[in-house]
């Protein structure tokens, strides 16, 4: 059977079918579903274990008009989509060509309207369905199974269907309102699906995304299958159900006579302030549920009958009993969970103490990371403030094979995602009013990035400013002006910790991963250049970014030419650049040398360094000093950032010449010298900039508009 807005199968039919890649174009018929291919669509159910397979192409048709209307949801909005074409690897990779910037997403209203179609079913056993919006996925997309919360409808990801559907093969579990399948049987159903899909694609991960009750279900399945590559995405798991503020009221609800059962319209009256009515305590349950869905209860009044159909009192009773069982079962097997886990916790969850529970589960689960949403409630997937696809990618949890590949698994951000990322850095861009200069082929210096080669591979090599403050304005301008995503070679501490401690949480660096940063390794460097990317490399690394007092604009590059021969292998253009301005926004007054003289701070530096992956352990010289510390900085009234990209060095056709270490080293010294020249040029020329200081810039923008480009020195 097919439901409006989704491709839905009854279990008896579904277990006899196998998903076909031809469906990925979303070309479903409204009255029937054609299934091509001989492969099995293996889904476990409580009603049948039937499996049908054939070696020849078959076609199956199932009528949908009897149970699910016309078989398709009406779309009440139009797409305002702009295709975002990445650069380098992203321009040429077929896997990224379908990523679009969808500005309009479905709402809570859509959830209720589409739930009407699903809850009007035959009340049969649980079943899987794949939303029509998820029909345009990329090749080799991993499977994502959505396990619903207490509602059981399976539309909990409705606001995320379109974006998830481009990078995942999304299946949603629907549990009919009148279904009374026990929790253990639901575990078996999902487990059988996971096993069958793993058998079909043993080298691909299987994602289990669950909220509340569904999160418990996901944990139980993962614990029973530690040998299968499972990735858990858990939203406010109900493993802490025993601590829910609903507990006192649940007991009353269980023993309430049927004649006294209350309706949701009655609960609405309670929520509007008429607390004098009887049974107000019982109303607290649905009061919290409705309140979690929306703070504007009046806006939900037209959908209360739908919510009443989804969660009638007898179903609430059953779901609460199941939650108790689910919580106990999942807690009993936490020690067996080996799956990679992304925990999403809401700070304003009125149904469960989710923040505290996230911290508790983090201690039990060995591969767990937490993302906290302080302004969201229990029904996180249905609320604003979460982009699930972006959260998964930013956390580094998206992969299409056994191990994450930061090059081939990278999905270029959409324009909307880039805007959201750089809104967080807008202050530094506004405060420093960056000036970017580049050099054309004839040597002319121009303002802007016209001198940056359009086609990769391109290697940008330069000076790393204090704390890397130059990154956000530069990366943002490259995307804005050139539609180029700079693939930064970043310190591994942005991707993993050796152990828990005082280093910033990995969530701090989600935006870096979203924008294409990769761990700095020879393998990743090779892959990026081979895919014709624009690569950003800082040979001075952490030593430059955490420099000492008086070391502004001093390069700390290794003696060996680390990148020249690799660049020559792919004919990459090497663009040297310098950036100045850190001394106009702050001054290092308490550096590494000062801190190492104080025993307490020395011990802290050692602890921080041990938490991070150590680079260049076998390299000699000052660049090998990679100790992690946080220098004391005296801030100043913001000055201005200046960037100067020199004329590119060509390596195409010089592969054999630069195989020779001596020749490679000569070019290395030339590149280093050009970076120093760029720094010297900017340091000198900025003295002639009348808008170097903040107040003249503000005065200019007050007169010409705050979006106007502020002039600079003559060049």
From TrEMBL:
Instruction: Tell me if Acyltransferase is a UniProt keyword of this record.
Output: yes
- Tell me a GO biological process for this protein: triglyceride biosynthetic process
One GO cellular component assignment for this chain's record is: membrane
Q: Which GO MF terms does the UniProt record name?
A: diacylglycerol O-acyltransferase activity
Which InterPro entries does the record associate with it? AB_hydrolase_fold, DAGAT
Keyword terms: Acyltransferase, Transferase
The record ties this protein, via Gene3D superfamilies, to: alpha/beta hydrolase
Kindly indicate whether the keyword Transferase belongs to this entry: yes
Pfam families in UniProt: DAGAT
Which family would the database say this protein is a member of?
Answer: Belongs to the diacylglycerol acyltransferase family.
Indicate what this protein is called per its UniProt record. Answer: Acyltransferase-like protein At3g26840, chloroplastic
| Taxonomy of the source species | Eukaryota, Viridiplantae, Streptophyta, Embryophyta, Tracheophyta
